[in-house]
Amino acid sequence: MEEETKKTKLMTRRDFLFTSVAITLGIPGCYSSDDKKNKQDAKQQNEPIDDIGKPEEEPSSGNVNKPTPEPEPVVPTKQSDHVLYYERQDAEYAKYRQAFNKRITHSPKIIAVCLDETGVQEAVKYANYYQLPIAIKSGGHSFEGYCLNNDGMVISLAKLNTKAYDEATERFVAGPGCKLGEVYQYLNTFGKLLPAGSCGGVGVAGLTLGGGYGFFSREHGLTCDHLTKVKMVDGEGNMHNSDDNPDLLWACRGGGNGNFGVITELTFKTVVAPKNFTSYVFKFYKLTPKKAEELAKMWFSAMETLPRSCYGSYILNGKTLTVLVTNTEEKESSALKIIVSKLNAKADKRASARKRPLLKALNAYKGRPDPLFFKNVSGGYYKGFDDIASVFQTIAAMIQKKQGMTTLLQINTLGGEIANEEKTDSAAYPHRQFGFLGELQVYYDRESQGAKAATKVQNIQQAFLKAGVTRHYRNYPDIDLPNWEQAYYGESYERLRGFKNRFDPNDHIQHPQSIKPS
User: Fold this and answer.
1) What's the mean per-residue pLDDT of the chain?
2) Are 357 and 464 members of one domain?
3) Which pTM value belongs to this model?
4) What SS3 state is found at 80?
5) Do residues 295 and 421 share a domain?
6) 372 and 261 within one domain
7) Structural domains in the chain (count)
8) Beta strand spans in 175-319 (E)
9) Are 328 and 461 contained in the same domain?
């Protein structure tokens, strides 16, 4: 039996074929002298990971007339000009392992910091040779830590953060390591905008692959709707371009990340950036669950006439409600004036228009850069208040129980250009018919509170499920969500499984809610 196992292992490694693609983006400008030293150190290491053995040599049969054997594949090592490998004992490991959610403590065996596309290919082949599952990390903001894993490889795309705008085509080319705040600043110098969200530290790649919505979506559509081209390294280390695989673009428009490939470059069409950004903030205090419900009904009704240039959110935090309305038009339309008047009539703290230059305004919503303890998940999609009316007071009561934590339910407006039926067949994103999206957020200070936070989220999610809320946003994952395949992807799931079979049939790239091959 031992001999049969050994032969099987030999055949598996002999059958491993390497390919080489001469596509190089070059080392990004942020490549530091420390990284150069690390790369020089890596050159002195010709060994694979210490605790993983080299393949055994096949014993000779002594037959001088046997055919010339096939050459053994080159064993991947940590010596490379295209990728830096860090293990747990290395000083740089903690830096690249860090996730935005302090609740996530996964510990990969090795982190591959790729310097270009060739580095991504090498890292994938390295992981496959040593049978390490692969997770992909760009911004590190995955709510459930799907950008990390335990005892596998994490491919870090932090260094692939180049940005280029072509004024002739109005196209923007971004590396997957670009952060949203940096993109807003860069494009604003050309008077352009990529419609997206508000959190400045989010990676553009992960945001886009899951859909991407925010202040500008009702006017311009989802971030993924502006994606025109991608380059991707598949689960076997092969390079693909959506120009040659048009269906790949469909899959990357809302089909989620970490499923069947590593995106190495994204091209977007852009829109004209508004010069100013106007916001209104309304406050309501000392709410009972019944009063919170009454205000929710009023808010949902008011949002039905919200102009496309506007965005709105209902944020219930304990017994306090904050309502935010934003506008990118220079003037206040008659419809917006009516909405503002209705909200001011009910608010404890009335709001007036606050107009600021775009970047200055966005800076106020970029979020904290330092890691936090939290359990945040999708609170589901709704067509209107009726979808959650039967459980709203119950949920409001649970939110008001502090339990040493801060709990929020934020409901955001969708609709507008997102609901454009002409875009239905062009993207894997399946939830265009819903006008509202909920986000459930629980923040806490101590690691020991994590289990209590998770239980609270599960109880609220059960209430939503009782009301029939079964569709959820892929970029707000919930690891405890039942039937997540349909919840995130709906009718797109089976087609996405076809892409998994095509680009990663051996399931090298994976996380707890990644698409599985059929």
Assistant:
1) 89
2) yes
3) 0.86
4) coil
5) yes
6) no
7) 3
8) 192-193, 227-234, 239-241, 261-269, 271-272, 276-284, 310-317
9) yes
Give one word for 490, left, alpha or beta, with left for phi > 0 and alpha for psi -120 to 50: left
Q: At what angle do helices 392-400 and 289-303 cross, to 10 degrees?
A: 120
Q: What is the number of other CB atoms lying within 10 angstroms of the CB of residue 157? A: 26
d(CA 503, CA 236): 8
| Tokens found for residue 324 | 């935010």
Residues contacting residue 120 through CB under 8 Å, at least 6 positions apart:
83, 114, 155, 157, 160, 233, 262, 264
Range of the domain at 197: 163-273+491-503
CA–CA distance, 36 with 333 (Å, rounded to integer): 55
Dihedral Cα 278, 284, 289, 293, nearest 10 deg: -40
CB atoms within 10 A of CB 387: 21
CB 440 within 8 A of CB 374: no
425 alpha-carbon distance from chain centroid:
22
Dihedral sign (CA 414, 416, 421, 426)? negative
Mean pLDDT of 213-241: 98
Q: What phi and psi, each to the nearest 5 degrees, are found at residue 251? A: -65, -35
Distance of CA 300 to the CA centre of its chain: 28
> What mean pLDDT do residues 17-46 have?
36
First to last CA, the chain: 31
The pLDDT score that the predictor gives to residue 77 is 77
What is the CB-side half-sphere exposure of residue 101 using CA atoms within 13 A?
Answer: 22
CA distance 240 to 269: 20
Q: Are residues 181 and 290 in the same domain?
A: no
pLDDT band at 68 (very low <50, low <70, confident <90, very high): low
Cα–Cα distance measured from residue 392 to residue 296, given in angstroms and rounded to the nearest whole number: 9
pLDDT over threshold 80, residue 295: yes
Considering the domain architecture, whether residues 286 and 187 belong to the same structural domain is answered as: no
Residues near 15 by beta carbon (within 8 Å), at least 6 away in sequence: none
Q: Which of 70, 18, 394 has its CA nearest to residue 237? A: 18
Do 130 and 269 lie in one domain? The reply is: no
Q: What span, in angstroms and rounded, lies between the C-alpha atoms of 403 and 510?
A: 35
CATH number of the domain where residue 292 is located = 3.40.462.20
